[in-house]
Design brief:
The complex is a heterodimer of chains A (about 120) and B (about 375).
Chain A: E1 12-18, E2 24-25, E3 43-49, E4 51-60, E5 71-78, E6 83-88, E7 97-103, E8 108-113
Antiparallel strand pairs in A: 1-2, 1-3, 4-5, 4-7, 5-6, 7-8
Chain B: E1 4-15, H1 23-37, E2 46-50, H2 59-63, E3 73-76, H3 82-95, E4 101-108, H4 116-119, H5 132-147, H6 151-166, H7 179-184, E5 187-189, E6 192-193, E7 202-211, H8 212-218, E8 226-235, H9 245-261, E9 270-272, H10 278-288, H11 296-301, E10 312-313, H12 318-321, H13 329-342, E11 355-362, E12 366-373
Parallel strand pairs in B: 2-3, 2-4, 9-10, 9-11
Antiparallel strand pairs in B: 1-7, 1-8, 4-7, 5-6, 8-12, 11-12
Helix pairs in contact in B: 3-13, 6-10, 9-10
Classes of the chains: A mainly beta (about 120), B alpha/beta (about 375).
Chain lengths: ~120, ~375
Amino acid sequence: MAQAEAGQSPALLTMSRCRRDGTLALPPDRRGCRTCGAVGEDIEILEIAATGIVLDVITVHRPLAGQAAPYLLGEVRLDAGPVVKGICVGEVARGSRVEGRFVSERSQVCFHPVSGGRDA
Amino acid sequence: MRDVFIVGAGIDAYRPASDRAYADIGLPAIRMALTDAGVAWGGVESTFVSTALLGVAVGRPMLRHLGINAAPIVHVENASASGSSAIGLARDKIAAGLADVVLVVGVDKPAMLPTGQELVGDGAWPGPAAPPIILFALMAERLSREYGWTREDLARVAAKNHANASLNPAAQSKRPVSQADILAAPPIAGMLTKFECCPVGEGGAAVVLASSDAIARLGLDRDRAVRIAASVSVTEVHNGGDELAEIEITRQATDEVLDRAGLHIDDIDLVELHDAFSIEELAYLDAMGISAPGRVAKDARAGHFDIGGRCAVSASGGLIGMGHPVGPTGIGQVVEMVRQMRGEAGSRQHTRTRAGLVHMVGLGAVCVMHVLTRT
């Protein structure tokens, strides 16, 4: 789903928009719109940049789900709309503007702080 | 629709995983429930088996040791709400006049099975897997900011439930844990410590449901019967906003189940609540409207939700204290409610309970609630 190459900044993500009712979905609703059930050509696939604002961030103190601890786990509202959870790297707090960068060895997008935040 | 009553309740103590076979956990709970009801196995007209983690067709290899009975067996899986949904289906069957005596049994042993969301293959967001504790640690972070709840408030919830569990022989958590102990424990994720997370172990719980006709026909003790006044299930819908789904479906299910029972939240004397994590208890109590808006943490500090308070919450110890073996959990809550309503809860007996609210949230998310009453 992350189409970007490792380190490219920011990562590109695949999501969907329903042409009938505008519902956005990430991961994309390829099997049908979660709001109206529209399917097939009514589901438009979009690529969006993994940029957004941190809504909340916590420290995870134990190695949960295969991640070495401690690490920061943030809830990020992407500029494109959806809210996702991802590992945050560096000085990240609520309101931070972040961009997700693809880390190929983890097959993951991790969020890094960029300038222009604190407007969550 | 006919009235439906719980006439028997049984439980096999929740405990950490052992080498006991599941049938040796489920059968004692069933036999206890049948004996409590005064109903013979041959009189059971339908059985619902609640299990989420054991595997395929686990009912019959257990139930056959009760003797011959050709009545239907159906397995029910609804994640954490499996047992609650099984009770709902059993109630529906009796209410509709399709059976007079129905057994509901929950039994499980811990196992790691993939969830639908993991299997569905819709191309997950390329982030880390977020186990429940992370989701609820994020909920705690957000709600403590929005409502002013503190780590101390969350620790108090867990301390209350561990204290209640220490009085419950069926509970997995055996010793009280103080608020200070909890605050001194290292956090696992965000502000949540291990004492604020439910243990998932093995266990069995069973109830026998009967119609009014069956109570009369079989000569059962009507004075010990507890009525299921209403039972509802609500499923999450995506709303495109940032509402917390588990809280929203709890709010909807509470309104619906109380409306169907013809009661108001102020009529409720005891709540058995889905507290897989400490934050959930405050969040769901607030959603239920059990306190005036913004007052739930203050009321908790004042002891309103303690045993003997104005509305006890999870006298059993809840999921944090009693444990969460999954398939049995929603049935074990009802076992507790029945014992409390009959005055058979021993050292954790709450003040007289005439109306009780039982609440579970399952992955999905779904919220299943019942109102139980005793006249």
